[in-house]
Amino acid sequence: MTTEATSSPAPQTPVPGAVSAREKKNRRQDSGGVRGWFGRQNPWVRAGLMVLFAVLAFLLPYVGEIPLIGPQIVTQGIDWPSALFNMSYYVLLALGLNVVVGFAGLLDLGYVGFFAVGAYTVALLSSPDSVLRTEWGWTAAVPIGLAVAMLSGLVLGYPTLRLRGDYLAIVTLGFAEIIRIVATSTETLRGDRGFSDIPHPPGEFADGKPIFGVADAVPYYWLGLAVIILVILGVRNLDNSRVGRSWLAIREDQEAAEIMGVRTIKYKLWAFAIGAFIGGLGGVMFAGQQGFMNSQTFVLQFSILVLAGVVMGGSGNIAGAILGGALISYIPDRLRGIQDPIWHTDLFGFRFAIFGAVIIVIMIFRPQGLIPSRRRAMELKDREKEVAPIE
Amino acid sequence: MSEPHIETPAEADAANARPFDRPAPEGTGTGATAPAAPGEDVLLEVDNVTLRFGGVVALNEVSFSLRKGEIFGLIGPNGAGKTTCFNAMTGVYRPTSGGIRFQGQSIVGKKKHEITRGGIARTFQNVRLFPEMTALENVMVGADAHHKTSVIAALFRLPRHHREERTGRDRSYQLLRFVGIEHRAGDVARNLSYGEQRRLEIARALATNPTLLCLDEPAAGFNPAEKADLLALIRKIRDSGVTVLLIEHDMRLVMGVTDRIVVLEFGKKIAEGTPAEVRDNPAVIAAYLGVPTDAA
Amino acid sequence: MRQVLARAIGGLAVIGLIAGAAACNSDSGSDDTASGNCGYKLAFFGALTGSSANLGVNIEQGFELAINQYNEKKGSTCIEVAKFDSQGEPGVAPGVARNLVADKKILGIVGPPFSGESEAADPIFEAAGIPTVTPSATRVSLSANGWKTFHRAVANDDAQGPAAGNYIKNVMKAEKVFVANDQSAYGAGLSEVVEKTLGSAVVAKDKTEADGKQTDFSALVQKVVSSQATVLFYGGYYQNAGLIRKALTTAGWKGTLVGGDGMKDPGLAKAAGNAAAVGTITTCPCSPPEKAGGTFVTDYKAKWNVDAGTYSDVAFDAANMFLQGIDAGNTTPEKLNTYLSTVEYKGIANTYKFTDKGELDPNYIKVWTFKFDATGNTIADQEVPTA
Amino acid sequence: MNFSGLIQDFGPLTITGLAQGAIIALFALGYTLVYGVLRLINFAHSEVFLLGSYACLIVWGFFGLDQNSATPSTLSVIGLLLLGLVAAIVISGITALGVELVAYRPLRKRNAPPLAFLITAIGASLFISETVGVMTQRNIKGVPPLIQPRDVFVIGNMHVTNLQILIIVLALMSMFLLDRFINRSRLGRGIRAVAQNPDSAALMGVNKGRVISLVFLLGGLMAGIAAVMYDLKIGVTRFDAGFLLGIEAFTAAVLGGIGNLRGALLGGLLLGLLQNYAASLFGTEWLHAASFVLLVLILLVRPTGLLGESLGRARA
C-alpha cells in the first residue's frame, strides 16, 4: 500500500547507551509488548490493512460468486449467510473466552453459561411466553441482558478465584451445567418448551419489509460482524494497556504480580466480567436471530468446542481466537452435504468425527495454535537471534 | 460504571509528584510522613516478630529497625530465617505475633499489593520475572502500581490512559538504562541472560517507586566482576534516595556495601551493628564457623 | 519475516487440507427437464446426527422408503430425496432451513420432527411458502402461529393425553398411578394432560433428564416402588423408557409402564430386553399399520434392515401424500400447499385431512393403544376415546 | 422437598447409590492417575470407558447372547463374565495407550503448552465417540441378562442383590490391588516418583515415558472393569455413554482430590450416594445439579478436594 510510509524513518546506527530515532518513535506507539510483523508496521498501514480486512469480511456473504474458489468456500448443507452468522457468534464467544483463558490464564470450561444468561434474559424480557409479560423490543432487552451476563460473571468469579487452574475448570463446568439444568427444570425458564416469538432487531427497508427478517441471514451476519469489530477494538485496547499487562502478569506468576502491586483479585474479576459480557453479547445476538430458543442449545459440548476453538486458533492472540472461533463453526458446517472422494458415501454423519481428527492434527502440528501469540512463538525461537541488537 | 478503586488521593498525589526521570529523592516518601517514631529517621521497624509453621519456629522474637537512606544487611547461615523474615515484611506470611511498622504504620495483615504501593519493593531469591513478557513490560507492570487508569479508561483510551502509558514507558526505559539493560527492552524476559534477569528484577522493583527496596540474595550465582557491578548498582540506588535491605550469603559483599547488619541464626537475632562490629562478634564467628559461605 | 510467512503458510495449509477434503460436494443438480411431473425434490428436515438422531432417522427412513417405491414404480428417479440435518437443535435449524428454501426444486417437506426445531425453522418455510407435514411435532401451540404451510399428521398432545389417561383409568382400572416425564416439550406436555385426566389417582410424580442425559434411574425406580403404584406413566421417548422399564423389573416392580407414541418403538424392547418390555402399553394417535393391509412393515425391514420405528409409518404416509399431490400436477409449493388443504388421504397409519390451522381433522383423530409382545414388537391393542 | 420419601427409602437409595458410586469411582481412577503424573485432564478417558463397554458386548455377542437371551447357567456366566472383563480391559487399555500415543506423546515431544493437551484430548474424545455413533447409527445396544438380580439379603425395605454385591466387591478389590501396586511394587514406586517430581525422578533413572504409558494403561484397565459393571447394571450402552458418566467420574475425582487414589474412591461413592439422595429429595431432574453444587461447596471449603491431591502421597 503506502511504501513511502513504512520506510520513512531513516535507519540509524544505534549508539550504545543512546536511543535511536526509530526506537523513540516506536516507544511512543507501542505498549512495550512483543511486536509481530503487523505490529511493526506504520500505524497508517495497520489501519489500512484493518479496514481492508473489515471490508472483505463484510463481503463474505457473496464469496460464492467468485468463480472456482468461491464454491469451494461456501457451505453446502447449510445456508451460507446463516453459516456466517453462526460463525459470527462463535467468534464472539471465542473472543470473550480468549480474555478469560488466553489473557488472564483462567481455565473456564463453562463459558456457554454466560451465553445462556444473555440469551435467556432477552427471552424473558421480550418473548410473549415469558412469565414477566413485559414483551420488550430486542433493543431494549439487550442492555439488561448484557448487564445480567456481566453480573453473572462476577457472581461466578468471586467465590471461585481462590481455586487453582484445573479446579477452576471443573467448577466453571459445574456452574454451566447447573445453569443448563436450572433452565431445563424450572417453570420460569420453560425448559425444552422454550421461548417463541423473541423479537428480531428493529429496522425496515424502504419498502416496509423488516431488515432483520426470517428468510435472509445476511443482515444478522453484518450486525454480528459490526459487533465483532467493536469487541476487537475494545479487547485490543485492554490488551495494550495496564489491564492487559496485569492479566499477563497474573497468568505468568500470580504471587510475583501481587508483590509488584497488581491487584490480582480485581483484575481476575474484570477478566471474568468482560468475558461474560462478550459471551452475553453472543447470547443476545443469538436470541435475536433465532426468534425461538430453549434449553437444548446450552449443552456442555458447546463450551468445550469454543475452548477448543480458542486454543486451536492461538490462545492469547486476538487474531487466533477469531480464526479458531470461525473454524469450529465452519468446519462442521462445511462438511455437510459432502461425499468422500473414494467411496462416495456421505461424509455427513462423520463430520464431527472428522472434526475431532482435524483438531488433533492441528494441535500436533501447531501446538501453539494456528496463529500463535507472539510471546509464545518467541519463547520457542532460538535465543541466538534475540541477542542481536534491535533493528 | 466505575471500578472499585481504593487508592487514596494522597497516594496518587505522591505518585504524581515523583519526578519520573529518576527514582525518588530522599524525603518525599509515599503516603503520609511517619509520625515521630523512636528515632526520627526510622523507616521500618520489626518488633518482636515470631513466626511459627506448625511446631517449627521460623522466627523467634526478632527485632531490628532500618533507618532512612542506609544499606542494611540481613545475614545468617542457611535456614536462619532470613527469607522468612523478608516474606513477613512483604506480606507473604503473617507473623504469629509481634509487629512490623513501616513509616510508623503497621503493615501486618495488609495485602501484598497494598504493601508494595505503600513503598516496599522486593526481588526474589530465585528470579521470578514474568517470563513471556518483554523486559520493558516487566518494568511497566511495576510502574503500573501507582497508575490510576481504570479498566474503562483503558477500554476507551481516555487521556489518562495515554498520559500514564507514556510516563510509565519513559520511566521504564530510564530504569532499564539505570540498571544497564536498556538494549534488551524489547526481548521477552525468558530470553535474557541470568545477570540481565537479576538486573531486570531490580528495575521492576524500582519501578514501583519504593522507599525501601529489599533484595533477596541478588548476587547469587554471580562471578566477582558481576558482583562488583552489582555493588556499584546498589550504591547507586541508595544514592538516589532509596533505602536498601540486603539479604546476603556472601559475607564479603555484605561487609563491603552495608552500613549496618543484623545476623540471624535459627530464627533468632544474634548480633546487630556496623560491619566491623559484627565481624568481631564472637556469636557470629561461632555461627559461621565451619559454615562455608560463598566468600570462602 | 520469512519465518512469519512460513508459519502463515503452514496455518493456511491446514485449512486448505480441510477445504480440499471437502471440495467434492454432493450437490450435482441434475438438469433433466421436468417431464411427467418429475424432476422435483421432496425434503426431509430433521435430526440425522446428534443425540436425538434416532427419531429423525426413523422418520427419514419411512419418508425415503415411500419415495423409493414411487420411483421404482415410475422406473426412474422421478422425485429426488433431499435430506437436511437439523441435528434436532433449534440453534442449528434456521441455517439449515434457509439452505433448504434456497433449493427451488423442493416442493414439500416432511418434518421437522421436534417441536423445538419447528418453532425455529417453520417461520422460514412459511416465508418461502413451502408446505411442511410434520409426523411427530405434537406441541399444541405450533398450530396457533397462523402458519399456512404448517400441517400436522398426528394428533397433538391435547388429544393423546386424555386418551392415555382414560385408558389407564377405565381399561386398566388403575387406582395408583405414578406420573413422570423427561422434561422434553413433548413429554412434559403429555404427562401434564395425563395427570389432569387421572386426577386423584396420581400418587406421586417425578421428572428425569432427557434421553442421552441420564442412564441411572435408581432413585426414580425406588420412588415408584415405594409409592405402591401399579402403573407408571412416563412422558418421554423410548430410550429412557427402556432403561426405566429394565430398572423397574430389576427392582422387582410388578406394575405396567404406560407411555405415549414417543415410546412406541422397538428400541424400548432393545433397551429393556423383550422379557422386561412385555406388556408395556403405548398410546399412539395412529391406526395400526397392519389394519391398513399394506406391506409397509416388511418393506421397511427389507429396505433398512431394521424394524420400523416410531413415526416411520406416519412419515411414509406424509411422503406418499405429497407424491399423490405431485402426481396430480401440483408441481409448485403453492399448488401443493393448496392441495394439502383439501386432500383427504388414506394412508397406512391413518386417514389424513387437515383443518385450516393445519391440524388433523378431529374426525380422523384416532388414538390406539399398543402393547409390547414377547418378540419386542408393538401389537395393536384397542382404540380408545380421546375425551 | 420430599423428606419423608428420603427417610422411607434411605436404605434402598444407599445400596443403589453405592453400586453406582463404585462404578464412578473406578472410572474416576483413570482421571486421577493421569492427572497425578501429568497434571493433565484426560478428556478422552470417557471414550476409553465407552469402547470397553462395547468390547464386552461384542464378545458376548460371539456367543449369541443379546438382551433377549435367557440367563445362562452359573458356570458359563462366570466364564462369560471373565471373558467380557478381559475383552473390556484389553480394549480399554489399548484405547488408553492409543490415545496417549496419538494425541499426547507428539505434543509432549514438542513441549506444547498444557492447554494444547486438553484440546487434543477433546479432539480424540469427539473422534472416537462420533465414530462409534455413526457405526452404531446412534442406537442403543442392549446387554444380555447375564446376572438375574436376586436378593441376597433384605434389611427392612433394603434389598441387596447379588449384582450390587458383585459390583461393589469387584470395585473395592480392583482399587485395593491398584493401591497395593502403586504403593508396593517397583513400577508403582516409579509412578509415585514421577508424580512427586518428574525431573528428579528422571535423574534417578526412572523412565518417564514408560511411567506415563503405564499410568494410561492402569487407568484403561480400571475403566474396562467399570465399563463391564456399567453394562450389567444399566443394561444398555450408547455412543455418548462415556461422555455422560465421564463428567460424573471427573467430578468425583476432583471431589476426593484429583491425583489421589483414595480420593477417587471416596469421591465416587459420595457422588453415587448424594445423587440418589438428592434425586429422592428434590426430584430426579436435579440429580446432576446436586453433584455439581456439592463439588462447588466442597472446593470452596477445601480448594484441593476432600483428601487433597498428590498421587505421590497416596497413602495420606
Automatic annotation (TrEMBL), chain A:
**TM region positions:** 44-63, 83-104, 109-126, 138-158, 165-183, 220-238, 269-288, 300-328, 348-365
Question: What top-level branch of life does the organism fall under?
Answer: Bacteria
Q: Which Pfam families match?
A: BPD_transp_2
**Is the Magnesium keyword given for this protein?**
no
Q: What is its main location?
A: membrane
Sorted alphabetically, which keywords does the UniProt record give? Cell membrane, Membrane, Transmembrane, Transmembrane helix
The UniProt entry lists membrane topology as: Multi-pass membrane protein
Q: Where is this region: Disordered?
A: 1-34
One Gene Ontology cellular component annotation? Answer: plasma membrane
Q: Which GO terms describe its molecular function?
A: branched-chain amino acid transmembrane transporter activity
Biased segments, Polar residues type: 1-10
Does the keyword section mention Membrane? yes
Where found, per UniProt? Cell membrane
Q: What is this protein called?
A: Branched-chain amino acid ABC transporter permease
Q: Which organism is it from?
A: Actinoplanes nipponensis
Which gene name does the record give? livM_1
Automatic annotation (TrEMBL), chain B:
- PROSITE patterns found in the cross-reference section: ABC_TRANSPORTER_1, ABC_TRANSPORTER_2
GO molecular function terms listed in the Swiss-Prot or TrEMBL record? ATP binding; ATP hydrolysis activity; L-isoleucine transmembrane transporter activity; L-phenylalanine transmembrane transporter activity; L-valine transmembrane transporter activity
**Domain named ABC transporter: which ranges?**
44-291
Q: Which Gene3D superfamilies match?
A: P-loop containing nucleotide triphosphate hydrolases
Instruction: Provide the residue span(s) of the region labelled Disordered.
Output: 1-38
PANTHER family xrefs: AMINO ACID ABC TRANSPORTER ATP-BINDING PROTEIN, CONSERVED COMPONENT OF ABC TRANSPORTER FOR NATURAL AMINO ACIDS-RELATED
Indicate what this protein is called per its UniProt record.
ABC transporter ATP-binding protein
Q: What is the lineage of its organism?
A: Bacteria, Bacillati, Actinomycetota, Actinomycetes, Micromonosporales
UniProtKB/TrEMBL annotation, chain C:
User: What InterPro entries does its record include?
Assistant: Leu-bd (IPR028081), Peripla_BP_I (IPR028082)
> What keyword terms does UniProt attach to this protein?
Signal
Residues making up the signal peptide according to the UniProt record: 1-23
Q: Which residues form the Leucine-binding protein domain?
A: 40-357
Similarity field: Belongs to the leucine-binding protein family.
User: What is this protein's record name?
Assistant: Branched chain amino acid ABC transporter substrate-binding protein
Organism annotation: Actinoplanes nipponensis
UniProtKB/TrEMBL annotation, chain D:
What does the sequence similarity comment in the record state about its family? Belongs to the binding-protein-dependent transport system permease family. LivHM subfamily.
Task: Show the GO cellular component annotation of the record.
Answer: plasma membrane
Transmembrane region(s): 20-41, 48-65, 77-103, 115-136, 163-182, 211-230, 250-274, 286-305
Species of origin reads: Actinoplanes nipponensis
Higher taxonomy? Bacteria, Bacillati, Actinomycetota, Actinomycetes, Micromonosporales
Q: Where does this protein chiefly localize?
A: membrane
Alphabetical GO biological process terms: D-alanine transmembrane transport; L-alanine transport; L-isoleucine import across plasma membrane
GO MF annotation list: L-isoleucine transmembrane transporter activity; L-leucine transmembrane transporter activity; L-phenylalanine transmembrane transporter activity; L-valine transmembrane transporter activity
The protein depicted here goes by the name Branched-chain amino acid ABC transporter permease
For this UniProt record, give its keywords in alphabetical order, as a comma-separated list.
Amino-acid transport, Cell inner membrane, Cell membrane, Membrane, Transmembrane, Transmembrane helix, Transport
The record's section on Pfam families has: BPD_transp_2
Q: Where does the record say this protein resides?
A: Cell membrane
Membrane topology reported for the UniProt record: Multi-pass membrane protein
Which InterPro entries does the entry mention? ABC_transp_permease, BCAA_transport_permease
